[in-house]
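Subject: complex prediction, re-run

Hi both,

The earlier run crashed halfway through, so I resubmitted it with identical inputs.
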Amino acid sequence: MSSPSDSHAGDRTVRLDLDAAVGPKTFRLLAIGCVLVLTASYVSVLYEVTRIVGGTRELLALVGAMFVAATVLAWAIRPRTATIGAIAAGVFGFAYYLEYTGVGVGIVRSAGGTILADTAALAAGLPLLRMVAADVWVLAFVPAPVFLSWYLAVRGRYALSIVPGGVALVFLVLTGDAGTVETLLGTLAAIGAVAFGDLEHRGGSVAHADLLAVLFALIVVLSLSATFVPAGPETTGQFAGSDPGTLEGTMDFASEQSGIGGPVDLSPEVRFTVESEQESYWRTGIYDRYTGDGWIRTGENIAYDGRIQGPPGEYDRVRQVVTAETALGVLPTAPQPLALEGEFTQHAEVSRHGQVHPESPILEGDQYAVESAVVDPSPDQLRAAGTDYPDAITDDFDYLQTPAGSSSEFEARAAEITADADTPYDKAVAIERHLRSSKGYSLDVERPDGDVAEAFLFEMDAGYCVYFATTMVQLLRTEDIPARYVTGYTSGQQVADDEYVVRGTDAHAWVEVYFPDHGWVAFEPTPGDSRDAVHSDRVEQAREDGSENVDTETSADEPVSEINETDTDVSEPDENDEPSADSGTDAENETEPADAEPDDTEPGPTADSSDDDTDGFWTQLRERLTVSRDTAALGLVTLVGLVAGAYRTGVTDRTRRELGLYWQRPRGDPDRDVERAYRRLEYVLARESRPRERSESARQYLDALASDSDATIDPRARTVVKRYEQAVYGGGIDRETADETVAVVDDLTRATIPVVGRRHR
Amino acid sequence: MTDSNTHHAESRPATEPLDVAAVADLCGDIEANVADVIVGHDDAIEHVVTAILGRGHVLLEDVPGVGKTMLARSIATSVDCTFRRIQFTPDLLPADVTGVNVFNKQTREFEFQPGPVFGNIVLGDEINRAPPKTQSALLEAMEERQVTADGETRNLPDPFTVIATQNATEPNRTYDLPFAELDRFMKKLELGYPDPEAEAELLGRTVGHHPIESLEPVTDRETLVAARETVATVRVESPVREYATRLVGDTRDHAHIGVSPRGTIALLRAAQARAVVNGRDYVLPDDIQTEAPVVLPHRIRTTDRTRDGETIVANALERVPVE
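This time it finished cleanly. Structure:
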C-alpha cells in the first residue's frame, strides 16, 4: 500500500542530507573529545582543590604526563597490563599519602577497617578540602583514572574508557566537591563518548544525533530537578543562629566551614550566659584552610575523652559555667578549653585544633562547665618567643597555607606593613594596627569576587569582623607566621561581676597567632568603636520594638555597651573592648524580603529604613537579572536539547505549518496552491471542531462538520473544497481560480486569529 | 416485447459523447420516471442506472415480490430499449437462452432464431434455479457481449445489460452461482421491503391501473449509448486510483479471498458513472465510497462466519485513508 504522502505532498519533505559530511572520522573525534571533557571535569575539581592547598603545577604536570604515557603506551601494552599498572600507580600513590601524613602504610595491614571507614566517610560527603594534606591526596588520586581512560580512548574502547573517569567523577560527586556543572558536564561527556563511539563503530548517521541531544537535555533537566549531588557539607540544623542571613549563620553555617558573606543581619536575641571570673571572648570554632572565599577546618573531630591538651607554656586555669538560653550548635568556651563538665559532655567532640563542638545542637537551659587555659604573656615575652615553631604546627596543619596564586602585590603590601617589625609579635601588632586604622566597620558590604583577603586589603573601604580577621590571617601567613581564623562571640554584656549575657549581636571572628612556648594568642584586627555603636544600637532598637529574648532577667535595663577602652596594641583574650556589633541591614533579599520585622528594620549605621528598602529592591532585581555562567551554560544545553527534541517530535514541522497557516507563498503551480490552501482551511477547521478522519473525504468532512456541530460552515469553505477537488482529482485548475481560492482561504483562516480575526470578520 | 433490432449484430457505434451536464440531467429524468413506478427504492434505481451507464450488469438478490422485475422493466421502458425476460427454471437449456438454428423449410436453410438474451435490457429471473450449464450461457454472454451458436458468433445489441435476480429464500432448491461468475456482475443489490409510507404509496398507485402500463420513454437508445460514451471519458486521477487500490488491497488483507482486479475495474467504472450522475467529469473518492458497498462485497469470501463481504468493505472504508 502506498502511503498517503505519495501523492502531491510527498516531494515536499526536506531531507537532512548531512550523512555524507559526517562520517566515522567525525564521530571518532567527537567521542575522543567527550572523553577529554570527562577527564577535564574531574581534573578541574581537583585543580580547584590544589588552587587552594597548593600543588597546581604538579597536578597539571602529572595529568600531562599521564596523557603522554597513555598515548605512547596505547598500542604497546595490553589492556590488562594497563589496568594493573594504573591500579598499582593508585595504590602506590595512596601509600605515599599515608606515609606523608604520618599514618604509615603499616596501618593498612593492622587497621584496614579504619581506612575503609575513612574512605566511606569521604564518600559520604566529607569534602576533599577537609582532608589533611589534600594536595598529596590529589596527586595520589589523579594518575590512575587519567591514564586508564585516555589509554582506552586511544584504543577506541570508549565505553570502557569512561569507566575510570566516571568512577573518579562519581567519587568527587560523593565527596561533594564536584559541583553541578562539573557533574553534568562529565555525565554528558560520558554519554556522548559512548554514543559517538557507538555511532563510529556501527556507522550511524548524524540523524541519530538529534536523539542524543534529546537525551542530553533530558539528563540536564532531570539532574536539575532531582538533586542527587550531595551538594557539599550538610546544611545547618535548626538551632539559633543558623539562619544564613545573619552573621552567625554565615560564619558557622556548617560546623566545618566558615563562609564569608555579603551584607549580613544580626540577631539581638540572647544566646547564652556565662559565669566566669574572667572576661573573655567565647570561642566556638577554629579554621585553618583558606579557600579564597571561605574557611575550612581540616581533619575530622574526635570524641571528647575527658582531657584536651593545654598550651605549651604557662597558663591560668579559668572556670566558666555556660548556660544555653536557646538551642545552640556550638559550645562557646574561653580559649583554650582543657576539660568539660556537664551531662552531655560525653557527646562532645574535639577538633584537631583543640576546640570543643557538640555532636548535636544543645538545648535551651543546658548547662556545662569548662576549664580553660588562659595564656596571658606580656608583649616582651612574645617578642622573645622567636620563630622556632614545632613541626606539628607548620606541617600537620594548614596554619601557613595561602591559596595558590595569591598576588605578589599582597605579599609586597604585607612586607610593607611589617617593614619596621622584627619579631612575629611586632609584625602581628603592625598588621592589626594597620587594619584597625585603615578600614571602616560596616555590615552592609558587597561580597567581593575572588580572593576576599586581597579584595579587602586593596579595594574595600569597610567590612566586618570576618573580613578583618581573614585579611589579617593571610597577611600573617604571607610573613610565615602561623595564624588561624577563629569564630565565636565577644564577651557580651556584663550583668554582674562574674556574669555575662551574650547575644547574637556579639557574634565575632578574630585571629589567633602561634608563639612558641606560649601557644595561641588572640589578636583583634576589627576596630572596636564603630562596632560598638552598631551593636548597641541594634540591641536598643530591639528592646524598643519589644522583641522577645533580647534580655535575660538580669540584663534588662542595663546599658549594653560597657566600653572600657584599653589600648589597641595587643588584643588579649580578656580584652573587653568588643561589645557586639553589627547592624541589621538586609540585602540578603533572596531569603528575607525587606519587610517590617524588627530584625530587618534595623538600619545600617548610615542608612535609614526607606533607603534600605529601595536598596533592597534594586539589589533583589539585580540578583534576579544576573545570569551566572553556569546558568547560561545549562540554559544553552537545555535549549539545544529542546530544539533537537522539537525536531525529533515534529514540533518544528507543526510550528512551520502553524505559521504558514495565515500566509501562503505562491509556489507557481496553481494545483499545489489550491491544495495547500485547502490544507490550511482543514487545519483551521480541525482546530475549531475536530480533525478530518483519514478515511473521510474532504466534502464528507465538511458535511459532517456542518451537520454535527453548531459551528456554521462558511459557504466559501465549500467552494474551496470544490476547487481542491478540481485541482487534485479533476485534472487541474487555472491560475486565476487558484489565486482566488488562496485569497478566500486567507480570509477564512485570518478570521480565526484571536484579536485580529474579530476585526477581520 | 419488441424484438426489432435483435437480428443484426451492431458494430460499436462511433457515437459522440454527450456533455456531462446533459447526461446528469438525463439520468435525473430516468430516475424520476422510474420512481413513478418503483416506490421507495431511489438508491437502487440510481445504482441500476449507473450500472447501465458503466456497462455493468446487476444482480438483485431478494425475496420474491419486492419489485425486481418491475424495476428492470420500467428502466428499460424509460430508455426506450428492448426488454427481455428469461425465467430460469431447473429444466432450462442453454439454447433456450442464446437461441437456436431452426431449419426453414421454405428457404431450405437453417435460420438463427435468437434467444431472449438478445435484448438491450435482459432480466434473468431467479437465475440460481437453472443448472450451472445454463447459467454459464448467460454469464458468457454478459462478459463477451456476444453469443456463439453452431460456430457462428453474433454480437449482442448495444446497450446490453443483464439484471439478474436471485432468490435467497429457498437455498436447497437452487444452484448457487459459482464465485467466478458472481464476479461478472458489477453490482449486487438488495432491494428490501419498502418502508410503510412507501408501501402505502405503492398500494395507492397500483390499485386498479398499474403505472407501468402508462410509462413513457424519456430518452432513446442512441442517447443512452452516447451517455455511456461520456462515462468512459470521465477522468480518474492517480490519487483516486490509488485510493481504490488501497481499498481493494485492504479487503484482500482481511478476507480469505479479496476483491479481484476485475472488481477494481468495476469499481472505477461504477464510480465514473456515479461522477457523471452527479454532474462531474472527474471521479472523487466520494464516488468510490458510494459505489464500493454494492460493487465489492459479493466478490469477497470469508472463512469467518461472523463477517461477510459487507462488513469487510465497511471496515475498509472506515480504515483506509482517502489520500
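The CA atoms of residues 542 and 583 of chain A lie 11 Å apart.

- K.
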